[in-house]
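Listing S7. Sequence submitted for prediction.
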Amino acid sequence: MAGMRSNLVRANVLLAAAGWTFYVWLTRMWNILRDPAHEVGFKVVHGLLAVVSVAFAVAITVIALRMRREAKAATSSPPAEQEPATR
């Protein structure tokens, strides 16, 4: 039971990290694109960095949601009984 709770905590940490990544890159790109002091090359490079980081955040979100679903399913369902061996 403790292992399942541990997986739920780990999944929540991953979700928090992914959410933080989304927030940081969306606000950063919003500020970079609106700032006329930055040249096009700077904006393109940071745009590519943002795309890669957000793609990783999406992958982490998918993994974390699957971990949460598996942890919750394992805690809510009773352990399956083993069938007797037949000869």
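Caption to Listing S7: primary sequence and predicted structure tokens for the chain studied. The chain has a mean pLDDT of 89. The chain has two helices and no strands.
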